[in-house]
Amino acid sequence: ANDGYKLWLDYQPIERSELHQTVSELFSGIFFFGKNPSHEAIKKELELASQGFLKQAPKYSADRFQTTQLWIGTRQELSQFLGLEHQAKIKALGEEGYWRGSIIHEGKSYYALIGNSPVSTLYASFDFLKSIQSNTFDKDTEKTDYPKIKLRMLNHWDNLDRTVERGYAGFSIWDWHRLPGYVDPRYIDYARANASLGINAVSLTNVNANAWILREDFVEKVKVLADLFRPYGIKVFLTARFSAPIEMGNLETADPLDEQVRSFWKERVDMIYEAIPDFGGFLVKANSEGQPGPHEYNRDHAEGANMLADALAPHGGIVIWRAFVYSHEIDEDRHKQANLEFEPLDGKFRDNVIVQVKNGAIDFQPREPFHPLFGAVKETNLGMEFQITQEYLGQATQLVYLGTMWEEILMDKTYRPKPSSTVARVIDGSDTEQNLTLMAGVSNIGTDRNWTGHLFGQANWYAFGQLAWDPDRSAAEISEEWIKLTFGQKPEIQAKIKEIMLASHEAAVNYMTPLGLHHLMGRSHHYGPGPWVEGGRADWTSLYYHRADSLGIGFDRTETGSGALNQYANEISKTWSDPKKTPEKFLLWFHHLPWDYQMQSGNTLWEEIGLHYDKGVKTAREMRSNWRELEKLVDSERFSHVDQLLGVQIEEAEWWRNSSLLYFQTFAKRPFPDSIEQPE
Ligand code: GCU
Q1: Has 333 been annotated as catalytic?
Q2: What pLDDT, on a 0 to 100 scale, did the predictor assign at position 331?
Q3: How many CB atoms lie within 10 A of CB 190?
Q4: 158 counts as catalytic
Q5: Are 244 and 238 in contact (CB under 8 A)?
Q6: Any residues with Cβ below 6 Å from ligand 1, and which?
Q7: What is the pLDDT of residue 46?
Q8: Which residues contact 84 (CB under 8 A, 6 or more apart)?
Q9: Does the interface ipTM go beyond 0.95?
């Protein structure tokens, strides 16, 4: 049986005898060059791995030459065994880069795991273990790697009472009540999992923040986590509630230019650094969805962020300020608000501020065009915010592999600041001058035994980590890797699961919101269809987004409509203002079109909508029949878990298709295409 707790770090016995032989030799003489907490973490990992791979404990050598097979240490520690050229090559990979490969010394060959720092030595070790697990380890091939993005971060939306906003995998893993005295061993497994992906930062608390986390007694609890995570290279951040000076500082204002407010923050920050000398900084949601912020005092986002940045700067801390802002008063189209508020502030943020932007301008929809802020500013550090938790994507009942969606966004051309720019080149800083780079993912982790609720939620955590490390990696390749680590080597398993994963995102888009439709989920919980949702604030109704009427459907964001399309580079806004030249996947995102509008296929828009919804359902069914072919190959516990959930997914897909099509038919007043299963 397998309950999924071990994630992708499930070190199974090595089957191939040649590899078994090589690995048992390496594990029979391990020598650590230095002593430090990250090396201790490596030791623990090697022990787990050795027990799993070989069913025996590893052996350490006291002498680096005699019986040693495996050398572990930093570049500095091993410098005498590396030629100058080799040293320079490794050094060039940066603080977090590593090299692993064979070193010949006085006629004897050693396999070495070398990082430019203790933490990157840990990264080298995880990569080494992964290559064994996936049966690709080869002593004679060298491997180097380094991350392209500086901060690779999880954002937990965890409340202090352990509920999790948009969390579908149980309660928060942070047991605030029993901290600091009781340290759940799960924290270490959490750190191992993240470090194995190169995730190096975590914000522990909800962006809809509670000021209490800044209290001394809470900081004492946070310190325990920070101390545990440090050897794994993970820095801790907290969310800061902008009104904290009022709520806990007894002040009458939280005005960022007020001296008392500034000293409040400075004192809080100094207190935190006293406990946690490498504290990362604050993540802030301000003036969005009712959260307090600088606008209450007629100050702008830069004034708010800079005030916190000034308090953090002396300690090397940073502020991550979110660009997810919207309110119905600013513009008739919510799409435009972030650019309206942040473009004029370009150049006004301190160097230690990163503006964190969701991948799209609305809100983590099944498919969105990239956010028009990417490429629109020149002197602002921009970070990417993806959502790993599947708020709008079936939550924890549906299998939706998000790697493909993120890849699509990262590869999108922004045409700014350079004609060749893509979202990836903007956020990794290569086409911009930004010195701080960030990719954040809203975590899908909870107290469920398998961490993520749906077993395949683990793949999204994994894929996020890999793309944050290297935004150019292919989502297909990442899925192959995850499958091998999670389900083993059998080629039939590989092929089937990969097929399921790669089809899953497009399927969800099709049965939920095809052709650029968006935000049609049930009100506020965002689960299941709700294109009919009305009442209350305009931007909380579904009609606001789909705009269906007797003539047609879609949101006109061209010049005849809200004009949001103009927030993109000319290359996009000019071309896409013509529906014929707009990618059909975004058609109704930017255009309101007649039901009989002719699509590239020759079908009418109405027919094509029907075909897409129907195709989504059919793919969901294929996903399950593919999965069922694995019944004999996957252990029964995981087989049944996924199989049952795929059953729910099919029902939900049908529910989406039937209800959405029947609802839209009340406007279109046309029959469904004959070739689809008729909704009822
Ligand atoms: C969405 C989500 C909220 C969350 C918000 C945010 O609107 O539904 O729960 O607080 O995003 O990102 O701040």
Answers
A1: no
A2: 76
A3: 23
A4: no
A5: no
A6: 165-166, 207-208, 285, 324, 363, 391
A7: 98
A8: none
A9: yes
